[in-house]
Amino acid sequence: MAGCRLWVSLLLAAALACLATAVWPWPQYIQTYHRRYTLYPNNFQFRYHAGSAAQAGCVVLDEAFRRYRNLLFGSGSWPRPNFSRKQQMLGKNVLVVSVITAECNEFPNLESVENYTLTINDDQCLLVSETVWGALRGLETFSQLVWKSAEGTFFINKTKIKDFPRFPHRGLLLDTSRHYLPLSSILDTLDVMAYNKFNVFHWHLVDDSSFPYESFTFPELTRKGSYNPVTHIYTAQDVKEVIEYARLRGIRVLAEFDTPGHTLSWGPGVPGLLTPCYSGTHPSGTFGPVNPSLNSTYDFMSTFFLEISSVFPDFYLHLGGDEVDFTCWRSNPNIQAFMKKKGFNDFKQLESFYIQTLLDIVSDYDKGYVVWQEVFDNKVKVRPDTIIQVWREEIPVDYMKEMEQITKAGFRALLSAPWYLNRVTYGPDWKDMYKVEPLAFHGTSEQKDLVIGGEACMWGEYVDSTNLVPRLWPRAGAIAERLWSSNLTNNMDFAFKRLSHFRCELLRRGVQAQPISVGYCEQEFEQT
Amino acid sequence: MRPSPHRAPGLLLALLALLALATQAPAKAPAKSLALWPWPSSVKVSPKLLNIVVENFLIDHGPNSTAGPSCSLLQEAFRRYYNYIFGFHKRYHGPAEFQGGAQLQQLQVSITLKSECDSFPNVSSDESYSLLVKEPVAFLKANSVWGALRGLETFSQLVYQDSYGAFTIKESSITDSPRFAHRGILIDTSRHYLPVKTILKTLDAMAFNKFNVLHWHIVDDQSFPYQSTAFPELSNKGSYSLSHIYTPRDVHTVLEYARFRGIRVIPEFDTPGHAASWGKGQKGLLTPCYNPSQQIEKFGPINPILNTTYTFFNTFFKEISSVFPDQFIHLGGDEVDFECWSSNPNILNFMKKKGFGRNFIRLESFYIKNIFNIITSLKKHSIVWQEVFDDGIELQPDTVVEVWKGENYFEDLKQVTSSGFAAILAAPWYLDAISYGQDWRRYYMVEPLNFVGSKKEKQLVIGGEACLWGEYVDATNLIPRLWPRASAVGERLWSPATVTNLDDAYSRLVIHRCRMVSRGIAAQPVFTGHCSHEYEMKK
């Protein structure tokens, strides 16, 4: 194994040592010491261990090394230390990284192992992980351990960390339909997600308000359904860029195409797809959910989701299924006739019919799926490996009760209900989100194992690129820690201290993260 | 539009807002061409469309104007508004080619009375203007430069760019003047330091909304960023850090930037409470607290019993009154905590000697009276928070009272004005108190004169302020939190009382916020939708 690669400082600064423990989210196991080592920006390096399965050329880690070097020291040059005798030691100014399996060209998935151990002591400065995804998490932690003294010297304390996530699905939802988010806003968000160890970008791409996803099989969808078919769309190239940018940060992209409700924007581009609503005996000119009574609907979905399945590499697709309004279906005589023929006596059965047909289509493309809780609530028959996302706080039942019922039925569950970040109130509302314990429901340990994680949701009715970033950060950080750290990490004072520090670190990294209390950061956000 | 999203139940307010939207008439087409904000007192628009060819268009001084090219305030404004109207879109249109038809070639700006070009605006500045747009020259007339600035803003809002990039304006005639003289935004640079750039951005946005007062709550308990030349230790010791200060040069930059936009800067130095940060750089200024008989390392409000206190303030406010040109200084006076005073034996002794008994209001009164005297001797006027009035402290006849308490502000306005004092209303407009959805509607529907009172009493309400306190606000979130929510207050204070149609306001505000975005202000969305040019963070 590698020898000591860092300079031992003769000074011990107990007061400053606490800075070294301002890590967010808090690791599962961490021990820090007063003993500290100096890092020299000019020739500090990340290096692959000789025995590592990943070596130079592994783009995930090569890029991460460059990114973290910049985050730590900036891209400028630094005053060179006085060399003389120290010179040969400086060459060892290195964090050695070793991974056991290389997945450099793959995509992270729900089963990816993100464990890592980080050892900084007299003999070693070493990051070991099973996968490159774990190495990314470890690099982030490493970057948060380094601190700068008032004189400008970089230090890292003697530290031992063994870390792994509590939940494998730690997501953030962005809504690009209610408001279009420029590509740069999405990419910047992915960066900050990585700083918080989030690993799923839930992209609620389309909805009633607009259809910005440019489909190559159905280009009319954006031509007629986007806010502006030139400026307010995501081209195939944009989508590719998001997916790769996310992959390099160990983040999955979970695309949501919500049907049969929330689909008004699909209508103009695909005539006949939506249900015409009737007023009396005549169509009223308005449209409702996707028309579940026509074969052409399923032909369309079949072709559309074939494209989606190939564009988005993640095993899972989010199929929506929330808030289906039955009034339009009820008004339409053709729908009624169809239901009669099928022997349906309630609209939930019709919804069920639609969703089951859709799920069969998607299953044929070897994809798994996530759906909103209504699909479960309305007793749609779904495949046993379906993931149910809980978003409603009180109806039909309290969200913890809902978690209990979903897992009791044997389905995997994702929690979002208490984490709707678009909702704002005065004061430090991150505390309530932080205090949520996702497993605080009655159930067996098998049931609790079925909770694969949760998502912070930033719906877009009142959010666009003008206010997205300060509304997201550091509030989403509270959820990130809840989903990564041990359930025992729940001391509010400790969290407050670290989160305040972390938000200043975000500012330093150029993220417009809003304050959680009075006070200041050494480096404030500068208006452009 | 229909209520759609993943919404937790029970959000009544949001639902109501959505319902209100659902019933809204599609006023899109007329609003698009005429989304004036705030709405002027009289607008006449003809359907006749004039073309504007960027290269053939000029903003210039009228031949009889009392201001000319030597008036840099107007010169700068011409340039600014030319850029607001055309500059940001230049890259989107091809070479100018006049297609024929009626054309507007010039905007002529005439100041008819004393230009006041080199003065600072004040509470009685004349902001009225008239604007006549017809072929081939439009005329903007104002009594002083302050009205011209407001008129330029209105003119810029009349110009419409179609989707092909061509600029047009309708023949129209507008006469306009503000309903209230004092239309303010409060920023708080003590709870969080705001970089000067953020303050300047705020001044830009204020001008877009015809606000005319920046109430600069510059210091408070948490930090003292104002760098005093007489007492440099105040910020040396009392600021968050030495880079979190406003140097005299910074203050000057803000003052001049504001002046160029017709905005007054009223500094607030809040005492005797809210003054913890003063204590660090000025020993002996704060009252030492006792527990119960022994002095502890804790300080309360300003110590009102020492002569040194008043010597200090004499010098301090002398500096303030020369640094800040406005006639008004805000003296604070809110939320004075008597606990520390009552723990201190020297204070109690002093009160006994003065015959105050244990009535701390009398002590507060004694303090404030002394401060008033200092301000009067410096030929300045005072603004105070309402507690000073509520506590029955004797005010100067020219003292202005700012009403901020939310419970019963109409009653408070009545009390203040019936006692003959001028009042500023802030209570319903605390923008730091955020909630989900379209809270601008609530701010918009406040009618400041909705209290029972004589005409004279109502005339004493000189305006209002939108307050963005800084506990949870800094440069990261100030702009989207302020705009366009403060715009609702802006229109309420400028436009006639009859301008209250929410649907109409909604359709104009949506466009106005996109206009602010196109001018580089990160104003947050009013609701679902889009702007043709979305906000992009520059790196």
UniProtKB/TrEMBL annotation, chain A:
GO biological process, one term: skeletal system development
Cysteines joined through disulfide linkages: C58-C104, C277-C328, C504-C521
Catalytic-site annotation from UniProt: E323 (proton donor)
Domain Beta-hexosaminidase eukaryotic type N-terminal: 23-145
SUPFAM superfamilies in UniProt: (Trans)glycosidases, beta-N-acetylhexosaminidase-like domain
Signal peptide coordinates: 1-22
Reactions listed under catalytic activity: a ganglioside GM2 + H2O = a ganglioside GM3 + N-acetyl-beta-D-galactosamine; N-acetyl-beta-D-6-sulfogalactosaminyl-(1->4)-alpha-L-iduronyl-(1->3)-N-acetyl-D-6-sulfogalactosamine + H2O = alpha-L-iduronyl-(1->3)-N-acetyl-D-6-sulfogalactosamine + N-acetyl-D-6-sulfogalactosamine; Hydrolysis of terminal non-reducing N-acetyl-D-hexosamine residues in N-acetyl-beta-D-hexosaminides; N-acetyl-beta-D-galactosaminyl-(1->4)-beta-D-3-sulfogalactosyl-(1->4)-beta-D-glucosyl-(1<->1')-ceramide + H2O = a beta-D-3-sulfogalactosyl-(1->4)-beta-D-glucosyl-(1<->1')-ceramide + N-acetyl-beta-D-galactosamine
Subcellular location, record wording: Lysosome
Pfam hit, one: Glycohydro_20b2
Glycoside hydrolase family 20 catalytic domain boundaries: 167-486
Gene Ontology MF term list: acetylglucosaminyltransferase activity; beta-N-acetylhexosaminidase activity; protein heterodimerization activity
EC class: hydrolase
Keywords attached to this entry: Disulfide bond, Glycoprotein, Glycosidase, Hydrolase, Lipid metabolism, Lysosome, Signal, Zymogen
Assigned GO CC terms: azurophil granule; beta-N-acetylhexosaminidase complex; cytosol; membrane
Superkingdom in the source lineage: Eukaryota
Assigned EC number: 3.2.1.52
Entry-linked InterPro entries: Beta_hexosaminidase_sua/sub (IPR025705), GH (IPR017853), Glyco_hydro_20_cat (IPR015883), Hex-like_dom2 (IPR029018), HEX_eukaryotic_N (IPR029019)
Subunit structure: There are 3 beta-hexosaminidase isozymes: isozyme A (hexosaminidase A) is a heterodimer composed of one subunit alpha and one subunit beta (chain A and B); isozyme B (hexosaminidase B) is a homodimer of two beta subunits (two chains A and B); isozyme S (hexosaminidase S) is a homodimer of two alpha subunits. The composition of the dimer (isozyme A versus isozyme S) has a significant effect on the substrate specificity of the alpha subunit active site.
Family statement drawn from the similarity comment of this UniProt entry: Belongs to the glycosyl hydrolase 20 family.
Function: Hydrolyzes the non-reducing end N-acetyl-D-hexosamine and/or sulfated N-acetyl-D-hexosamine of glycoconjugates, such as the oligosaccharide moieties from proteins and neutral glycolipids, or from certain mucopolysaccharides. The isozyme S is as active as the isozyme A on the anionic bis-sulfated glycans, the chondroitin-6-sulfate trisaccharide (C6S-3), and the dermatan sulfate pentasaccharide, and the sulfated glycosphingolipid SM2. The isozyme B does not hydrolyze each of these substrates, however hydrolyzes efficiently neutral oligosaccharide.
Protein's UniProt name: Beta-hexosaminidase
Species this chain originates from: Mesocricetus auratus (Golden hamster)
Gene: Hexa
From TrEMBL, chain B:
Keywords tagged on the record: Cytoplasmic vesicle, Disulfide bond, Glycoprotein, Glycosidase, Hydrolase, Lipid metabolism, Lysosome, Signal
Domain Glycoside hydrolase family 20 catalytic: residue ranges: 180-496
Reactions listed under catalytic activity: Hydrolysis of terminal non-reducing N-acetyl-D-hexosamine residues in N-acetyl-beta-D-hexosaminides; a ganglioside GM2 (d18:1(4E)) + H2O = a ganglioside GM3 (d18:1(4E)) + N-acetyl-beta-D-galactosamine; beta-D-GalNAc-(1->4)-alpha-L-IdoA-(1->3)-beta-D-GalNAc-4-sulfate-(1->4)-alpha-L-IdoA-(1->3)-D-GalNAc-4-sulfate + H2O = alpha-L-IdoA-(1->3)-beta-D-GalNAc-4-sulfate-(1->4)-alpha-L-IdoA-(1->3)-D-GalNAc-4-sulfate + N-acetyl-D-galactosamine; N-acetyl-beta-D-6-sulfogalactosaminyl-(1->4)-alpha-L-iduronyl-(1->3)-N-acetyl-D-6-sulfogalactosamine + H2O = alpha-L-iduronyl-(1->3)-N-acetyl-D-6-sulfogalactosamine + N-acetyl-D-6-sulfogalactosamine
GO biological process: carbohydrate metabolic process; ganglioside catabolic process; glycosaminoglycan metabolic process
Gene Ontology molecular functions: beta-N-acetylhexosaminidase activity
Disulfide topology: C71-C117, C289-C340, C514-C531
EC number assigned by the record: 3.2.1.52
Gene3D superfamilies: Chitobiase/beta-hexosaminidase domain 2-like, Glycosidases
Signal peptide: 1-27
List of catalytic residues: E335 (proton donor)
Record-annotated Beta-hexosaminidase eukaryotic type N-terminal domain positions: 36-158
UniProt entry tagged with the keyword Cell division: no
SUPFAM superfamilies according to UniProt: (Trans)glycosidases, beta-N-acetylhexosaminidase-like domain
GO cellular component terms, semicolon-separated: cortical granule; lysosome; membrane
Cell compartment(s), UniProt: Cytoplasmic vesicle, Secretory vesicle, Cortical granule; Lysosome
Function: Hydrolyzes the non-reducing end N-acetyl-D-hexosamine and/or sulfated N-acetyl-D-hexosamine of glycoconjugates, such as the oligosaccharide moieties from proteins and neutral glycolipids, or from certain mucopolysaccharides. The isozyme B does not hydrolyze each of these substrates, however hydrolyzes efficiently neutral oligosaccharide. Only the isozyme A is responsible for the degradation of GM2 gangliosides in the presence of GM2A. During fertilization is responsible, at least in part, for the zona block to polyspermy.
Quaternary context: There are 3 forms of beta-hexosaminidase: hexosaminidase A is a heterodimer composed of one subunit alpha and one subunit beta (chain A and B); hexosaminidase B is a homodimer of two beta subunits (two chains A and B); hexosaminidase S is a homodimer of two alpha subunits. The composition of the dimer (isozyme A versus isozyme S) has a significant effect on the substrate specificity of the alpha subunit active site.
Family: Belongs to the glycosyl hydrolase 20 family.
Entry protein name: Beta-hexosaminidase
